[in-house]
Design a protein that fits this description.
This protein is α/β, with parallel strands linked by helices and 349 residues long. It folds into 2 domains: 139 residues, NAD(P)-binding Rossmann-like Domain (Rossmann fold); 186 residues, Dihydrodipicolinate Reductase, domain 2 (2-Layer Sandwich). The chain is 35% helix and 20% strand. The strands form 3 sheets. Strands 13-12-11-10-6-9-8-7-14 form a 9-stranded mixed beta sheet. The two termini are 29 Å apart. About 3% of the residues have low confidence.
């Protein structure tokens, strides 16, 4: 493992639950030596390193988790590819699309298995969401993620993290893409001035941004994300996918609820269209079909990657590196639009 911070420990905890998966821990690397030592002691095997190349030379791993901050991506990935080491890369995979594409192309030229930390794709609620989108053509979608500022010292500086949309809310963007397909264009605006430097020393990122993402299918997805919140009551974060007669509400890692696809008795009681101006009323007793998340998506995601490496079959991985590049492209295009004030065309390839 390269990077023994918060996400590294999350993966370590997941991997320690997979005692029957046919692997052993051989090395942990971090610029903070005590963190690497802590990881080795925690799992009871492996050695701590300050330099990942030395770790590779000595431990000779078959697979690696790259959990370093996004602003230091590239070198470890290229070295892993050169040595034929299978890679799990935490998101965001890079802050530069050209770099991500170069890594993707080098992966394609060799025989290694990759996965990216979009663990939300492994949630059981996605089966119902995918079925809904397939059977109910989506007319419009919208969503939001509002929260606070993570503790990582680099996070509140956009040049180092990419901003909240790239570093955190890329999960929501990835699920939207997972359901709606590839994106075509984006237009984004951002606001600062809500969070002060006193609250978050060195603060240099967007408090809130709103993006309109148009997908190839023609569906427009309006998404707002912010890190200004001091209380969970300040906003209700969710995504909504609406068809002509029903809608799906998606709460990340929690549940999906489908409204409008109801039984005949409820349908008979629902109010219909008011003739004339086309206004519609929502039934006050509206009942939805709810599917709750019932899996530990982190464990499932990590188990899928490990099993893929052990068996040599990566077909069950839901977000290999090449696919993750297209999600990154959307978020980086949003950042470009915020900076230029213009719509940005997303180039897939």
């Amino acid at each position: 493992m390269i990077g023994c911070g918060l996400m590294g420990e999350s993966h370590l905890d997941n991997l320690m639950k997979l005692g029957d998966a046919g692997f052993e821990f051989v090395g942990f690397c971090d610029v903070a030596a005590e963190r690497a030592e802590y990881f080795a002691n925690k799992c009871g095997s492996g050695k701590a390193y300050a330099d990942y190349k030395t770790m590779y030379d000595e431990a000779k791993p078959d697979m690696v988790y790259i959990c370093a901050p996004p602003y230091v991506r590239g070198e470890a990935e290229f070295e892993s590819i050169e040595r034929g080491i299978h890679m799990f890369v935490e998101k965001p995979i890079a802050l530069d699309l050209k770099l991500a594409r170069e890594i993707r192309d080098r992966i394609a030229a060799c025989n290694i298995i990759t996965a990216v930390g979009f663990q939300c794709r492994y949630d059981n609620i996605n089966d119902a969401a995918k079925d809904y989108v397939k059977n109910n053509p989506i007319a419009i979608a919208q969503g939001s993620r509002i929260g606070g500022i993570p503790e990582a010292v680099w996070w509140n500086k956009k040049p180092l993290s990419g901003g909240q949309l790239v570093e955190q809310s890329i999960h929501q963007i990835d699920i939207a893409r997972y359901l709606l397909g590839e994106a075509d264009t984006v237009y984004s605006v951002a606001r600062r001035g809500i969070v002060s430097d006193v609250e978050s020393p060195g603060y240099a990122t967007d408090d809130i941004s709103t993006s309109v993402i148009t997908f190839v299918s023609g569906v427009s997805f309006t998404f707002t994300t912010g890190c200004y919140s001091t209380n969970g009551a300040s906003w209700n974060s969710r995504m909504t996918f609406g068809s002509r007669s029903s809608r799906l509400e998606y709460r990340l890692l929690s549940n999906v609820t489908i409204y409008g696809l109801i039984n005949e008795d409820l349908a008979a009681r629902a109010e219909g269209v008011i003739k004339g101006d086309g206004t519609q009323r929502r039934n006050e007793d509206e009942v939805g079909v709810r599917i709750d998340s019932n899996v530990d998506v982190g464990v499932v995601c990590d188990r899928t990657f490990v099993d893929a490496v052990v068996t040599g079959d990566g077909s069950m991985i839901r977000s290999p590196y090449a696919d993750a590049v297209n999600t990154l492209a959307i978020t980086l295009a949003c950042n470009e639009s915020m900076a230029t004030g213009r719509p940005v065309k997303i180039e897939i390839g």
